[in-house]
Amino acid sequence: MDPRTAKLADVLVNYSTAVKPGEKVFIKGGIKTEPLILALYKKVLQAGGHPLVWVTLAGTDELRYRYASDEQLGTFPDPLKLVTETYDVMISLWGSENKNMLTGVDPEKIARVKTAGKDDFLKYAERAARGELRWVGAPFPTQADAQEADMGLLDYEDFVYSACLPDMEDPVGYWRNFFSWQQKIVDWFKGKGKVQVIAPGTNLQFSIQDRIFINCAGLENLPDGEIYTGPVKESLEGNVSFSFPTCYHDREVTGVRLWFEKGRVVKASADKGEHYLLHMLETDEGASYVGEFAIGTNPNITRITKNTLFDEKIGGAFQLALGASFPETGGFNESAIHWDMVSDLREGGEIWVDGELIHKDGAFTLDFSSQPL
Q: How much is the pTM?
């Protein structure tokens, strides 16, 4: 086993989720993530927890969408409901075998599956907001993800681990220092009201009145490096263009453009995948509203990989998510979907808050002291 895999498992169990003796821990991932699953299983046992592993086989989703009836697609598994309602920790692993597996699937079927899981997602978010459920997601490098990022597997492995473990000798110390730095930014946002994002193809305004920004430094995602909140639901006005490709349920959409009035998407287009985008916006009432606004801060992620987990963390990017808000931010939009879309601000982008320029060309203009490197 790559020693970095064991190191990542240690961070996920003993820092990100801080597993305690007696806690029930749910570990889920695809078969390609097996080395990290085994490392996590060992670490959870050593921490005194009770691990349960859920491994998905390549091709099961494709089979489900091809052969399942509407009734089957609209049914959410009871065992997963029990996990959401009773487990203390959830660790999700991402590693693809085929990034295009669901390209030919009718988007109405995908929307039906997402709708079936809406209540479970809301329970998940509510328990997480109350501190009853700790969770983290992390990648495991695979050939498919490397190919999608236009990299060889060895180079992609180096990329993934350098983003998740910037200091191999003391990764926990790194993320703790990163948390302290980001907290200065989060504190600055307290009490602020109006945000405006200006970039090529983008002029968007919205309110963050009475909202809470969350400091993301390895506790819920690895890699990490962002601050986020839930905008006031009906406050978005203007338009936004997303310069990065976005992938949702193994369907790539590029060149997304959205227009907002009173918070709602009133017009949407895309260079690729427009039909899918429009169907997802119709999943439910909340799907056409924004549940999250975020600013990426990770200095070790500088290139696009077509993987939102990485792209949204790029230092100098910003993100909006269509659909569900996270309750801990003060946002209240409910939806079966949560679709992250990312745009680059490093060439001509600006973020203004209450009339003050705070972010320009991918960097903060205010002095928050030195950023960890």
A: 0.86
